[in-house]
Amino acid sequence: MRVLKKVVSVMTASAMAMSLLAGCGGAKASSDTFKIGSIGPATGGGAAYGLAVKNAIQLAVDEINEAGGISGKQVEYKFEDDELNAEKSVNAYNTLKDWGMQFLIGSVTSACSIAVSDKTKQDNMFQLTPSGSAEDCTKYENVFRVCFSDPNQGLKSADYIADNNLGTKIGVIYDSSDVYSSGIYQKFAEEAAVKGLEIVSAEAFNADNKTDFSVQIQKAKDGGADLIFLPIYYTEASLILQQAARDGYAPKFFGCDGLDGLTAVENFDASLAEGVMLLTPFAADATDDLTVKFVTSYKEKFGETPNQFAADAYDAVYAIKASIEKEGITPDMKVSDICDKMKTAMTEIEVAGLTGTITWDASGEPNKEPKGVIIENGAYKSME
After folding, report:
1. Which tens digits make up the pLDDT trace of 60-108?
2. What is the DSSP string of 80-137?
3. How many C-beta atoms lie closer than 10 Å to residue 58's C-beta?
4. 3-state SS assignment for residue 343
5. pTM of the entire predicted model
6. 138: DSSP letter
7. Which end of the chain is more exposed for a tag (fewer CB within 10 A), N or C?
8. How many CA atoms does the CB half-sphere of 86 hold within 13 Å?
9. Taking the chain, what is the end-to-end CA distance rounded to the nearest angstrom?
10. Between helices 110-123 and 86-99, what is the axis angle to 10°?
């Protein structure tokens, strides 16, 4: 009897272990709900981006569920904080995978999104980054993006500055250690030459030296720059604005989506951002019905004005919804089968979103038009 009990005990333990392992590899899909996961920085230096994405996805999911779901099925949503760290982003992906995620919106930033894409490629899981703009973010066929790629941001920024006569002598301050910043700068410099813009200074900093910008500012000043292009993130931009003001230097400043969040930097005098321009596909003060509804709902729910990252994420959810409906995807399908259908659907849908009317090509790149905004009285105002 003791031997029999021991055998039964071992078999029971083995069965439990197998059950746990099966759960870790992804439990059987539910037939009742679609599961959307998202990854981004909810804490740390990029929190303004990650929280905007987290909140906007929640808003879109709530709207969809209240309207009856997708093809009659409800949507579950779970967000994981990666703290702007690629290794933690991969850990977050594994957590969401164990939860049963079927679609990934993320990661929010480029390096994290690239790291996670190696995993989604292996699993053939559909990945849609709202704001990962480095070229390599979409190097795999299962990954699409909502935002412009870095080269496209650089090209369109040079075009916008030249076409609107915003400046002729251009200074550039960029982060040579960051793929986002250096990627935008490279394409900007190429297009600036085509457009007749003179780059009088192009000064880099890196991750180990990003608090003192006196040399970069002085080089731009000595070169007579009437506009400084900042293809960088808002934290460093706030320091540059402070130090330029301290030196009595007041050129125009122009940036890309990385500057979104500038006015909310802790202990930053937001008046120094007055007149700063950036290229973005979203302006919160737009008067179209969709934007007004989104901004009003977002403010009511989260107590602040949404930024471009929020708009990109909101559009991402509705792109997933449109693709599911286009291909007749059901929640009980395998993740890999869902992904195969999503890859086809994304190239066939058109989303009339907050960031414009968007279509996608097979390379994962969106097609839409950018907008220029300027900061006035602490708020974004369209320059169109």
Report:
1. 999 999 999 999 999 999 999 999 999 999 999 999 999 999 999 999 9
2. EE-TT-HHHHHHHHHHHHHHT-SEEE--SSHHHHHHHHHHHHHHT-EEEESS--SGGG
3. 18
4. helix
5. 0.77
6. G
7. N
8. 12
9. 84
10. 40
